[in-house]
Amino acid sequence: MSHFLLRGFRRPRASVEEALGSLERDVLEQLWAADGEASVRQVQAACGELAYTTVLTTLDRLFRKGLVQRRRDGRAFLYRPRLSRDELRQGLASDVIDSLLGADAEAARPVMSTFIDVVEQRDAALLDELERLLRDRKRRGGRGGR
User: Fold this and answer.
1) Distance between CA atoms of 11 and 8, rounded to whole angstroms?
2) Per-residue model confidence as pLDDT tens digits over 26-57
3) pTM over 0.85
4) More confident residue, 54 or 89
5) In whole angstroms, what is the distance from residue 142 CA to residue 79 CA?
6) Which of 8-16's residues contact partners 24+ apart within 8 Å by CB, and which partners?
7) Residue 143: DSSP 8-state
8) Which of 38, 100, 114, 133 lies deepest, with the highest CB count within 10 Å?
Protein backbone atom coordinates (compact mmCIF):
# COMPACT_ATOMS: atom_id res chain seq x y z
CA MET A 1 0.00 0.00 0.00
CA SER A 2 1.40 3.38 -0.92
CA HIS A 3 1.12 6.40 1.34
CA PHE A 4 0.30 9.86 0.15
CA LEU A 5 -0.27 13.24 1.69
CA LEU A 6 -3.65 14.82 1.17
CA ARG A 7 -3.19 18.58 1.24
CA GLY A 8 -5.00 20.18 4.13
CA PHE A 9 -5.50 16.84 5.91
CA ARG A 10 -3.86 16.41 9.29
CA ARG A 11 -3.25 13.06 10.89
CA PRO A 12 -5.38 12.50 14.01
CA ARG A 13 -2.29 12.72 16.22
CA ALA A 14 -1.54 16.18 14.80
CA SER A 15 -5.12 17.25 15.51
CA VAL A 16 -4.82 16.09 19.11
CA GLU A 17 -1.49 17.84 19.52
CA GLU A 18 -3.06 21.03 18.17
CA ALA A 19 -6.14 20.71 20.39
CA LEU A 20 -3.99 19.95 23.44
CA GLY A 21 -0.71 21.78 23.58
CA SER A 22 2.39 20.05 24.88
CA LEU A 23 2.06 21.85 28.22
CA GLU A 24 -1.55 20.68 28.59
CA ARG A 25 -0.51 17.11 27.77
CA ASP A 26 2.33 17.30 30.32
CA VAL A 27 0.00 18.60 33.04
CA LEU A 28 -2.56 15.89 32.25
CA GLU A 29 0.21 13.29 32.51
CA GLN A 30 1.10 14.62 35.98
CA LEU A 31 -2.53 14.43 37.07
CA TRP A 32 -2.79 10.84 35.84
CA ALA A 33 0.43 10.01 37.68
CA ALA A 34 -0.96 11.57 40.88
CA ASP A 35 -3.70 8.92 40.77
CA GLY A 36 -6.28 11.12 42.45
CA GLU A 37 -6.49 14.82 43.17
CA ALA A 38 -3.60 17.23 43.01
CA SER A 39 -3.15 20.89 43.83
CA VAL A 40 -1.50 23.42 41.54
CA ARG A 41 1.58 23.29 43.79
CA GLN A 42 1.79 19.50 43.53
CA VAL A 43 1.49 19.59 39.76
CA GLN A 44 4.03 22.40 39.57
CA ALA A 45 6.52 20.41 41.68
CA ALA A 46 6.06 17.37 39.44
CA CYS A 47 6.47 19.42 36.24
CA GLY A 48 9.81 20.88 37.23
CA GLU A 49 10.74 24.41 36.20
CA LEU A 50 7.28 25.76 35.37
CA ALA A 51 5.99 28.85 37.15
CA TYR A 52 3.00 28.44 39.47
CA THR A 53 0.91 30.81 37.34
CA THR A 54 1.73 28.82 34.19
CA VAL A 55 0.49 25.59 35.79
CA LEU A 56 -2.56 27.39 37.20
CA THR A 57 -3.46 28.80 33.77
CA THR A 58 -2.93 25.42 32.11
CA LEU A 59 -5.14 23.64 34.65
CA ASP A 60 -7.82 26.29 34.20
CA ARG A 61 -7.66 25.81 30.42
CA LEU A 62 -8.01 22.03 30.85
CA PHE A 63 -10.98 22.64 33.17
CA ARG A 64 -12.68 24.88 30.59
CA LYS A 65 -12.09 22.19 27.93
CA GLY A 66 -13.84 19.68 30.20
CA LEU A 67 -10.78 17.46 30.62
CA VAL A 68 -10.31 17.98 34.35
CA GLN A 69 -12.61 18.42 37.33
CA ARG A 70 -11.84 20.67 40.24
CA ARG A 71 -13.17 21.21 43.72
CA ARG A 72 -12.46 23.95 46.19
CA ASP A 73 -10.25 23.04 49.12
CA GLY A 74 -9.96 26.12 51.31
CA ARG A 75 -8.70 28.94 49.10
CA ALA A 76 -7.28 26.64 46.43
CA PHE A 77 -8.63 24.06 44.00
CA LEU A 78 -7.79 20.38 43.77
CA TYR A 79 -7.79 18.95 40.24
CA ARG A 80 -8.40 15.48 38.88
CA PRO A 81 -8.64 14.18 35.32
CA ARG A 82 -12.19 13.73 34.09
CA LEU A 83 -11.05 10.83 31.87
CA SER A 84 -8.40 8.15 32.13
CA ARG A 85 -5.70 7.98 29.45
CA ASP A 86 -7.53 5.07 27.84
CA GLU A 87 -10.89 6.86 27.90
CA LEU A 88 -9.32 9.91 26.24
CA ARG A 89 -7.69 7.70 23.58
CA GLN A 90 -10.96 5.83 22.98
CA GLY A 91 -12.89 9.09 22.65
CA LEU A 92 -10.39 10.48 20.16
CA ALA A 93 -10.31 7.24 18.19
CA SER A 94 -14.11 7.10 18.14
CA ASP A 95 -14.35 10.64 16.76
CA VAL A 96 -11.76 9.96 14.05
CA ILE A 97 -13.27 6.62 13.02
CA ASP A 98 -16.80 8.04 13.00
CA SER A 99 -15.69 10.86 10.71
CA LEU A 100 -13.98 8.39 8.36
CA LEU A 101 -16.87 5.92 8.12
CA GLY A 102 -19.21 8.38 6.48
CA ALA A 103 -22.99 8.36 6.48
CA ASP A 104 -23.77 4.91 5.07
CA ALA A 105 -22.52 1.33 4.88
CA GLU A 106 -21.25 1.76 1.31
CA ALA A 107 -18.96 4.62 2.36
CA ALA A 108 -17.74 2.60 5.35
CA ARG A 109 -16.62 -0.51 3.43
CA PRO A 110 -13.35 0.87 2.00
CA VAL A 111 -12.45 2.37 5.40
CA MET A 112 -13.04 -0.95 7.18
CA SER A 113 -11.04 -2.83 4.55
CA THR A 114 -8.16 -0.37 4.83
CA PHE A 115 -8.29 -0.58 8.63
CA ILE A 116 -7.88 -4.36 8.43
CA ASP A 117 -4.99 -3.99 5.95
CA VAL A 118 -3.17 -1.55 8.24
CA VAL A 119 -3.76 -3.73 11.33
CA GLU A 120 -2.36 -6.75 9.45
CA GLN A 121 0.71 -4.80 8.32
CA ARG A 122 1.39 -3.58 11.84
CA ASP A 123 0.96 -6.93 13.62
CA ALA A 124 -0.80 -10.01 12.24
CA ALA A 125 -1.65 -11.12 15.81
CA LEU A 126 -3.84 -8.01 16.11
CA LEU A 127 -6.11 -9.51 13.44
CA ASP A 128 -6.76 -12.44 15.79
CA GLU A 129 -7.55 -9.97 18.57
CA LEU A 130 -9.90 -8.06 16.26
CA GLU A 131 -11.66 -11.30 15.32
CA ARG A 132 -12.04 -12.22 19.01
CA LEU A 133 -13.49 -8.78 19.81
CA LEU A 134 -15.99 -9.10 16.95
CA ARG A 135 -17.09 -12.57 18.12
CA ASP A 136 -17.54 -11.29 21.69
CA ARG A 137 -19.51 -8.28 20.48
CA LYS A 138 -21.81 -10.45 18.33
CA ARG A 139 -22.44 -12.78 21.28
CA ARG A 140 -23.48 -9.80 23.43
CA GLY A 141 -25.96 -8.63 20.85
CA GLY A 142 -23.87 -6.45 18.59
CA ARG A 143 -23.97 -2.97 20.11
CA GLY A 144 -22.78 -1.02 23.11
CA GLY A 145 -20.62 -2.01 26.07
CA ARG A 146 -16.88 -2.22 26.02
Assistant:
1) 10
2) 999 999 999 889 999 999 999 988 999 999 99
3) no
4) 54
5) 37
6) 12/92, 12/93, 12/96, 16/92
7) S
8) 38
Quick one: how far is CA 8 from the chain centroid? 22
pLDDT in tens, 102-121: 788 888 888 888 888 888 88
**Distances from the Cα of 39 to the Cα of 9, 73, 88, 105, angstroms:** 38, 9, 22, 48
Q: Which residues pair with 69 in a beta bridge?
A: 80
CA gap 57, 21 in Å, rounded: 13
- pLDDT range class, residue 143, cuts 50, 70, 90: low
Name the nearest CA neighbour of 41 among 75, 65, 67: 75
φ, ψ (nearest 5 deg) of residue 73:
-135, 95
Q: How far apart are CA 107 and CA 110, in angstroms?
A: 7
Closest CA to 28 of 11, 10, 43: 43
Residue type, 3: H
Is residue 31 within 8 Å of 79, Cβ to Cβ? yes
